[in-house]
Amino acid sequence: MCQNILYLCGYKKLRKMRPLSKLKVPLLFLLFIEFQIVVSFAAKAQESGETRVAFWNFENFFDPFVDSTRMYNEFTENGSQHWTKSRFYRKRNNMYKAILAFSEDEPIAVLGIAEVENAYVLNMLFNQTPLKTHNYRIIHYEGDDKRGIDVAMAYCIDKLQLISTETVKVKNPDNKHYRTRDILYAKFFDRRGDTIHCFVNHWPSRYGGERETIKLRALAANTLKHKVDSLVFLHQTIPKIIIMGDFNDTPDDPSICEVLSAKSPEKYDENAVLVNLFTDGRRLGFDGTLKHQYNWQIFDQIIVSKSLIDNDMGLSYKPNSATIVHNDFLFEKDESFGGVKLFRTYVGPKYFGGYSDHLPVYIDLIFK
Predict the structure, then answer these.
(1) Alpha-carbon span 339 to 332, nearest angstrom
(2) pTM confidence score
(3) 70: how many CB neighbours lie within 10 A of its CB?
(4) Is 80 exceeded by the pLDDT of residue 20?
(5) 308 near 365, Cβ under 8 Å?
């Protein structure tokens, strides 16, 4: 069941309606006023200029309560992670401060999120912190992940209107009992006139070995590719699509560049549909989004349809805006492998009280 937290603006009911013929204000004048309001709103939207789309894997953002419906309750006070209310609030406060920092204290149009337990933690983050002033609404569905971690979206109602949303199940034809995280899809109407299709992903991890899990990520990539192809077929053109997520693969791995067929900005051609904006680490501001021993890798990426790059009007990708967020407070000194490493909440069972084991990523859109 959808845990979609929506707050709808309503109008106060008039206590008594007079017949139109007895209204003191001419009807044409009222229609003119209404038209002026619409034009004013559109002009205000135009003035807003750039808008940001971001993604972040929150690293095990659980509430501290026991869930009797699930077998996995390690993130509780008596669980193996000793996840207390104070640790939960520290994590919540870390996340909202980081989001305010990389959003530059402006509302993000869409923030894709991975590794959240439920609507409660999202509500506590977006409605019980200073983020509430940015008018975010949440899209979240309870998924099939064994540990209970899901993907979600937060979107700003001042920038986007939600049209529809659904989850896309990733199925394994060789194993009917296979369960993994859903792909979250949402269709939005930009208040300046465009329709945007957004997908949030958290593909199967490499736990158990990279080679042993290649097929599972290929399944997720193929599922997403079918959904993208169906949108292209439905519109008989390439609609404006934004795909974001923790893919547990790099831009050069087969799941991304072959199955999903997401090309680099330097290599896409007239036959391409998707362009991966995170293929060139030299232009992203940092070496990667997560670190394994000595090596940084880009697992967190934002991929867009070619129609967001090759167009002369409407929403468009702002060239060279793809960024890996790397604020100093997200890191700590790496005593084992040199340089810096991510300031994480946990490393195994050991609590550190940091942010995440992934860095956020974002792109900016402009309106032509």
Answers:
(1) 9
(2) 0.87
(3) 12
(4) no
(5) yes
